[in-house]
Specification:
The structure holds two protein chains of two kinds. By secondary structure, chain A is mainly alpha-helical. Chain A has helices at residues 3-24, 28-40, 44-69, 74-95, 100-120, 133-137, 158-175, 180-190, 195-220, 225-245, 252-275; strands spanning 142-146, 149-153. Chain B is an all-alpha fold. The longest helix of chain B is centred in the first third of the chain and has 34 residues, at 8-41. The radius of gyration of chain B is 19 Å and the shape is elongated. The termini of chain B are far apart. The relative contact order of chain B is 0.14. The chains are: A mainly alpha, B mainly alpha.
Chain lengths: 276, 124
């Protein structure tokens, strides 16, 4: 196998990973890691580095699109990002000292949890009329376009949101993923934001959190340009296509099948690590 | 939001543009570097290839001095770095915005976030 052939294969499979990551809602980063490790036998740290770069690229692209639609709440994003960047910095620094076996186990756990979260998500919830005192003080409440009119939402449990975002940031740094599902979970369950606002704001934040980890990864030498370029180009193209066809795909079964496929790859990665 | 100041809508437009232009520039650099790299080394065997097994510890502060800088790999590295710097830039833009509208808390938040990213970039 030549480098050219290797790059083309990597590009193709990263494209598929980006497409599946976007269609399942898991995100390109978390899907591409098992592909790189299980299929291409790439060093876990290099896979995490390449994934982290993908996360920055795809979330930046998505954030640019969402900003136009008026769902992103910049204030909530910046408020939560304070905890997320601290988490990301600690997580990324820890990667250098934690045994890879633990990282693989943690990764699989987070992947299974994320797959579960994207499958059980429910979009309608009760409306709140009051908000948490921090939310009022920091003017976190906002409006969003809903059924052709502007609707208001009130932010709940702001401190819990901050805490969960710190954890999400730490996992992002530890594993080289965007931890979008966890960010959305925190905004959905703690802050009680409308689902679209949570996803858009999460996308806005992911790139900033990942950039913090990337700084440390660059220094550790985990970002290998030769592995990263086919991966980032492939995942970006796949996610872009996924975003285009997503509105036309309503089959829940498809999402479940894709999520199972991705979880099986994580199982393969676990097996390979401990028995291969 | 006074009329003489920048509105939140305007800042959202700016942020969107920074992201779009940033990704374009970064992808261009990565793509050009990739093409040159593949022309030069595409025919080599992938097994145990030095380019794939090397630990490239990229020191942002000295990236201009590295011997790889004027190479295809250097071009890809620069593209990756631009992607990260775009994130610093958009937090910086928000920091500027919150300073303009005299929002102390958010000025502090965005300044703190920007400092953490910059710290991680220069961390040794």
């Amino acid at each position: 196998l030549t480098i050219l052939a290797f790059s083309i294969l990597l590009l193709f499979f990263s494209f598929l990973a980006g497409l599946l990551g976007s269609l399942t809602g898991l995100g390109g980063g978390i899907v591409v890691i098992p592909v790189l490790v299980a299929l291409f036998k790439i060093n876990l740290h290099f896979a995490m580095g390449a994934s982290l770069i993908c996360v920055i690229a795809t979330s930046s692209g998505a954030a640019a699109a969402y900003l136009r639609e008026g769902y992103t709440n910049l204030r909530i994003g910046m408020y939560l990002e304070v905890a997320a960047v601290i988490g990301a910095l600690i997580g990324a620094l820890l990667v250098g000292v934690i045994n890879k076996d633990y990282l693989i186990v943690l990764f699989s756990g987070v992947l299974f949890l994320s797959a579960y979260l994207t499958l059980v998500r429910h979009e309608d919830k009760e409306q709140y009329r009051t908000s948490h005192p921090w939310a009022s003080k920091l003017k976190l409440n906002g409006t969003y376009p809903h059924k052709h009119k502007t609707e208001q939402y009130h932010v709940q449990n702001a401190p819990l949101g901050l805490f969960l975002m710190g954890i999400a940031g730490m996992l992002s740094g530890l594993l080289g993923i965007g931890s979008g599902s966890l960010k959305v979970l925190a905004m959905d369950q703690a802050l009680r934001l409308p689902y679209k606002v949570a996803t858009a704001t999460s996308n806005f934040m992911i790139g900033i959190t990942a950039a913090t980890s990337a700084g440390i990864y660059f220094n550790y030498g985990y970002i290998n340009p030769v592995i990263t370029f086919p991966v980032v180009l492939g995942v970006l193209a796949g996610s872009f296509l996924g975003g285009k066809i997503l509105p036309r795909i309503h089959i829940r079964a498809l999402r479940i099948v894709f999520s199972i496929v991705i979880c099986l790859m994580a199982v393969q990665m676990l097996y390979q690590n401990f028995h291969g | 939001m006074g009329s003489q100041m920048i509105s939140e809508n305007q800042i959202q437009t700016w942020l969107g543009n920074v992201l779009k232009v940033g990704i374009m520039v970064s992808l261009m650099l990565i793509l050009i570097g990739a093409v040159f790299f593949l022309i030069q080394h595409g025919g080599e065997s992938f097994e145990n290839n030095i380019f794939i097994t090397t630990n490239y510890d990229i020191d942002i502060l000295k990236i201009w001095e590295s011997k790889e800088f004027f190479s295809a790999i250097g071009m890809i590295e620069l593209g990756l770095l631009v992607l990260v710097l775009v994130q610093v830039l958009r937090v910086g833009l928000l920091c500027y915005y919150y300073t303009m509208i005299h929002d102390k808390w958010f000025m502090l938040f965005s300044f703190f976030i920007m400092s953490v990213i910059l710290y991680s970039l220069i961390w040794q």
